[in-house]
TrEMBL record:
ATP-binding keyword on record: no
Coiled coil (residue ranges): 94-121
Disordered: annotated span: 231-342
Alphabetic keyword roster: Coiled coil
InterPro entries (alphabetical): Luc7-rel
Family of the protein in this entry: Belongs to the Luc7 family.
Feature: compositional bias, Basic residues: 250-260, 299-335
Pfam family, one: LUC7
Protein name: RNA-binding protein Luc7-like 2
Keyword Disulfide bond found: no
Amino acid sequence: MTAHDQMRAMLDQLMGTGRNGENNKFQVKYSDPKVCKSFLLACCPHEILSSTRMDLGECPQIHDLALRADYENAQKKKDHFYDIDANEHLKNFIADCDRRTEQAKQRLAETQEELSAEVAAKANSVHVLAEEIGKKLAKAEQLGEEGFVEESMKLMGEIDELRKKKNDAEQEYRNSMPASSYQQQKLRVCEVCSAYLGIHDNDRRLADHFGGKLHLGFIKIREKLAELESTMEKRRKERREIQDRERGGSRYRSRSRSRSRGRDRSRERRDRDGRRDRSRDRRDRDRDRERRDRDRRRSRDRRRASRSRSRSRDKRRSKRSRSSSRNRRSRSHRSGSNDRKK
Ligand SMILES: [Zn+2]
Ligand SMILES: [Zn+2]
């Protein structure tokens, strides 16, 4: 790692990768592990269920629409496989909800007056019809609001039919028990959102439940999970293939790395020997230097003595040598040009 890389890594650690102008309020890139991948795929339960009775509070991971846009652009160029992460997240979330639903059912079974199997079946058919009415009513209202009057009217017709069936089912249920027992509200748990529904809830109340943000939010999450699940096997395989391909490269690298590690070890051994050699060398060299220094000192002294004697002679000689060297140079220049002509 170069000093520049080290500095960069340190700054990244301190300030996040947002420091290079990818400005968002969280100072992170969409690929940051702190960013909620389910949110990037628009299916985080924290977002979908916000301001419902089951509001989960703020997601522990970052939600930012600008990052979702970044991700959507990047995903067009390179497959990120975030759907695999989102699938895990939703699967765990829904598993938790289903566990809660089972617990709620268990609680009801313990606290509510137990019905015989026959009566329970009758109660159930009331529930089923009530649920159907509630859903259709919610849908009819939605269609009406959106201006699809004809479709809405058609649904209202179907609802009338269901109401008749439900009245019959209620009558049967009522006849199967004493009036005092019938008065008691029989609760059941919504399989989609684990809310409690009562057997005596009116159509309006049921429509509010089935058309409400909580129940619809859960439908959205469950549908998204089912959609993700349907491709998961293929997607995991695709990711594994890409990882294998990448690891294939790195496997080669790691093999050559271990080979070079072996090389390093032998180099180390050699180095150790070398160091021994070198220290021996150094000792020799030191001895040599001492000898040389002694010699040099001696010769310097000798030269100094001779120089003072021959200084006047040297001056004369240097003048002569300069002129002769000039002649030599011009001669060599000429010969050079001749060489090139040949
Ligand atoms: Zn989230
Ligand atoms: Zn529900």
